[in-house]
């Protein structure tokens, strides 16, 4: 079981002008797969605020995996990948690629995402789009990986031959 933190990035969501659909969906799917949701938050599309929350959760060891939703597109306010890159220590490119490949099976617009997957300390940080359909598709990719990711990031793992 992995410990999951969820960060919704949305100007309107942070202002209470729009219901957060992505964050609750991530929580529902993660809990349904047996993972523990340990933290949730909503921040506006402000690079410094996103990076601050990601850094705080990762550095405190709050979660094994932080999943963000929102702010991964091409508009000028979409800065989640930049904030994520700012706190990243290592990339997990295969996860980001798998998310795009899976998304492309559903819509050509998946090619427009700029979401990243990175590690900071013992925490994996993954950016998902804000659209609930894209969130569900992204979680289809992530859920089977989470236990193993948490195990790998926790410390030395012996791989069988």
Walk me through what this model shows.
By secondary structure, the protein is an alpha/beta fold. It has helices spanning 11-14, 22-32, 47-59, 80-87, 93-104, 132-142, 146-154; strands spanning 3-9, 36-43, 65-69, 90-91, 117-120, 123-128. The protein has a six-stranded mixed β-sheet with strand order 2-1-3-6-5-4, sandwiched between helices. A hairpin with a 2-residue loop joins strand 5 and strand 6 (123-128). The two termini are 25 Å apart. The mean pLDDT is 96.
What would the keywords be for this entry?
about 40% helix, about 160 residues, alpha/beta, globular, molybdenum cofactor biosynthesis, MogA/MoaB family molybdenum cofactor biosynthesis protein
The rough form would be described as globular
Largest sheet: 6 strands, mixed
Q: What's the average pLDDT?
A: 96
Binned, the helix content reads: 40-55%
The SSE string, one letter per element, is EHHEHEHEHEEHH
Per DSSP E runs of 2 or more residues, the count of β-strands stands at 6
Low-confidence stretches: none
Strand content: 15-25%
Distance between the termini: 25 Å
The structural class is alpha/beta
Number of helical stretches of at least 4 residues: 7
> Spatial order of the strands in the main sheet?
2-1-3-6-5-4
Rg over CA atoms: 15 Å
């Amino acid at each position: 079981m992995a410990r999951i933190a969820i960060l919704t990035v949305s100007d309107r969501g942070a202002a209470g002008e729009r219901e957060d659909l992505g964050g609750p969906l991530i929580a529902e799917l993660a809990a349904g797969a047996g993972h523990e949701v340990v933290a949730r938050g909503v921040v506006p599309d402000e690079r410094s605020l996103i990076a601050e929350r990601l850094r705080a959760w990762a550095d405190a060891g709050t979660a094994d995996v932080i999943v963000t939703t929102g702010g991964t597109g091409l508009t000028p306010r979409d800065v989640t990948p930049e904030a994520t890159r700012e706190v990243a220590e290592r990339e997990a490119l295969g996860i980001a690629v798998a998310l795009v490949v899976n998304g492309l099976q559903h819509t050509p617009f998946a090619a427009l995402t700029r979401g990243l997957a990175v590690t900071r300390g013992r925490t994996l940080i993954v950016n998902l789009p804000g659209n609930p359909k894209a969130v569900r598709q992204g979680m289809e990719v992530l859920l089977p990986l989470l236990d193993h990711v948490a195990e790998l990031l926790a410390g030395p793992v012996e791989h069988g031959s």
